[in-house]
Write a sequence for this structure.
């Protein structure tokens, strides 16, 4: 799939604001006030990853993205300011946004981002279906701000900036590892307490601990003998405590382990790097003991057989 591109330069000046509103509608972004229609300029490059994560690189003269769009599937959006100056307006006041800072939150919630000067930013929309398998604790319905000056946020911001710099040249397949990293970083910054949408108190401590355990599980997925007891021993906790941690997130160890293995297999089925591997080899490399069990579990979760899913990916 080729990137979708748009620029106001191809329109007469008086038609540019309306053309831009149409482009923003295509991105499902609520456009606010355009302060200087006479000298307004904007352009966008948009690319969609295999899992439906949308990356839109936007360059504009001063404008405002304000409101909410309820006419879209549940998703998490992120905006990283690459160049320029912006302000995030919330119920608590205004938060200055510096280059590199990340603003994020759930769709359907009122938000206002005002770009005060000519600015460039990367706007990302990730469907909840592509994130739910890694979001142990649900995200509160608030807008969050991550300062790029802080440790993990700085690394996350760097990844997003690097993606923006080469977005024109990336293919959908090349965005696959980026979307995986995006999910991992988002989960990590929430678990670490970054931003305003993180959990606090005992719930936050449990979610943070569970996230660390899930990271341990990620390194052990290929072990066909992986058990709750083995993970508990690796983390230095009791199996009973580990069961309670998963229960606090309305999950269980066995369901989570199966979901993660299926997600890893699903990624490999459409990855060019795994094109020479058989479906059986893919399921075995992620800890499944038999291809028949894997096929049933895959169909139950995704509504299609592994073979048909791979064929669909080849046809894209």
């Amino acid at each position: 799939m080729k990137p979708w591109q748009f620029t106001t330069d191809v329109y007469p000046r008086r038609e540019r604001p309306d053309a831009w509103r149409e482009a923003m509608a295509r991105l499902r972004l609520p456009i606010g006030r355009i302060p200087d229609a006479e000298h307004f300029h904007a352009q966008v490059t948009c690319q969609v990853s295999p899992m439906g994560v949308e990356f839109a690189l936007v360059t504009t003269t001063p404008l405002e993205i304000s409101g909410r769009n309820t006419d879209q599937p549940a998703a998490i959006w992120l905006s990283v300011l690459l160049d320029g100056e912006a302000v995030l307006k919330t119920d608590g006041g205004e938060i200055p946004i510096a280059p590199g800072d990340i603003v994020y939150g759930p769709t359907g919630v009122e938000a206002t981002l005002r770009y005060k000067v000519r600015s460039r930013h990367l706007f990302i929309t990730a469907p909840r279906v592509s994130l739910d398998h890694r979001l142990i604790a649900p995200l509160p319905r608030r807008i969050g701000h991550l300062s790029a000056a802080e440790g993990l946020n700085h690394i996350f911001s760097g990844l997003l900036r690097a993606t923006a710099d080469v977005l024109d040249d990336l293919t959908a397949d090349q965005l696959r590892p980026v979307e995986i990293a995006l999910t991992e970083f988002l989960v990590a910054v929430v678990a670490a307490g970054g931003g305003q949408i993180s959990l606090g108190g005992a719930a936050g401590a449990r979610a943070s601990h569970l996230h660390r355990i899930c990271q341990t599980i990620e390194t052990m997925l290929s072990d066909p003998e992986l058990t709750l007891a083995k993970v508990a021993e690796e983390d230095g906790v009791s199996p009973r405590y580990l069961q309670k941690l998963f229960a606090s997130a309305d999950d269980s160890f066995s369901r989570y382990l199966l979901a993660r293995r299926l997600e890893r297999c699903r990624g490999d089925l459409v990855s060019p790097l795994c094109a020479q591997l058989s479906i059986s080899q893919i399921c075995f490399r992620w800890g499944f003991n038999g291809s028949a069990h894997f096929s049933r579990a895959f169909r139950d979760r995704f509504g299609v057989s592994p073979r048909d899913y791979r064929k669909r990916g080849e046809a894209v």
In short: The first helix runs from residue 16 to 26. The CA atoms of residues 258 and 297 lie 8 Å apart.
